[in-house]
Design a protein that fits this description.
By secondary structure, the chain is α/β, with parallel strands linked by helices. The chain contains 11 helices and 10 strands. Helix 5 crosses helix 6 and helix 9 runs antiparallel to helix 10.
């Protein structure tokens, strides 16, 4: 891997886009390496992922404009599909993914963050979809996920004006969950990921699946999805242990980690 760093600490994996000289811009190679990294995650050991960018200036400044500038219509559509395929894989990844946005998250960078389950950011973070100023539309899901996250009206305003917003406004409109001083961001992401990793992993995965799939259908179908995934948790070792511990009034045995089975 030339542009992706991956490390595991306990049950938490951290993926870092490592193309700092280009402000971690996404080209075809970065997308391919991110895809390969996701494929290689050991889901038996890792229970939560953190996604961030190298350096202090940028999460991901966008897709690589130099690479895009000469694309034909067919090549542009194919490049959009490459990004969308990787981002959709991230969005539907079995375990939760936290975006730790440490600076610029513009264009493809904002779209990458929106593909994660939870977004937290540094005080210097900047978000935006500047594509119409470059003569294109957002191409990695921006027109779809932004509207779902912040509402159609705010999404249209951000996309049509190509105006960037700072961390405080991103928090206000619900694009991010929390804002931290830059030096605390990664530690806060690790703390949150550690808390997620301590919970029953089958239940956490089923919650992610229920939320994601339920949002795409009407309520009558959504509750059926939940019922199935709720039932799927029963008879697992995690469910048996978690409920037995809760019902043990004396709490005589120390609570052990959930076993993912």
């Amino acid at each position: 891997m030339e542009f992706i760093l991956y490390e595991v600490n306990g049950a938490v994996g951290t993926i870092t886009i490592n193309r700092e000289k280009a402000l971690n811009a996404l080209n075809s190679q970065v997308l391919d390496e991110l895809n390969a990294t996701l494929e290689a995650v050991d889901l038996d050991a890792v229970r939560c992922l953190i996604l961030t960018g190298a350096g202090a200036k940028s999460f991901v400044a966008g897709a690589d404009i130099g690479e895009m500038s000469t694309l034909t219509k067919a090549e542009g559509e194919a490049f959009g599909k490459k990004g969308n395929d990787v981002f959709r894989k991230l969005e539907t990844f079995p375990i939760p993914v936290i975006a730790a946005v440490n600076g610029f998250a513009l264009g493809g960078g904002c779209e990458l963050a929106m593909s994660c389950d939870i977004r937290i950011c540094a005080e210097n973070a900047v978000f935006g979809q500047p594509e119409v100023g470059l003569g294109i539309t957002p191409g990695f899901g921006g027109t779809q996920r932004l509207a779902r996250l912040v509402g159609a009206g705010m999404a249209k305003q951000m996309i049509y004006t190509a105006r960037n917003i700072k961390a405080d406004e991103a928090l206000r409109i619900g694009l991010v969950n929390a804002v931290y001083p830059a030096e605390e961001l990664l530690a806060q992401a690790q703390k949150m990921a550690g808390g997620i990793a301590k919970n029953a992993p089958i239940a956490v995965r089923n919650c992610k699946k229920a939320i994601n799939e339920g949002l795409d259908v009407d309520m009558d179908k959504a509750i059926v999805i939940e019922e199935k995934l709720f039932g799927d948790c029963f008879e697992t070792e995690d469910q048996k242990y978690g409920m037995a511990f809760f019902l043990d009034k004396n709490k005589e045995k120390v609570k052990e980690p959930f076993q993912n089975k």
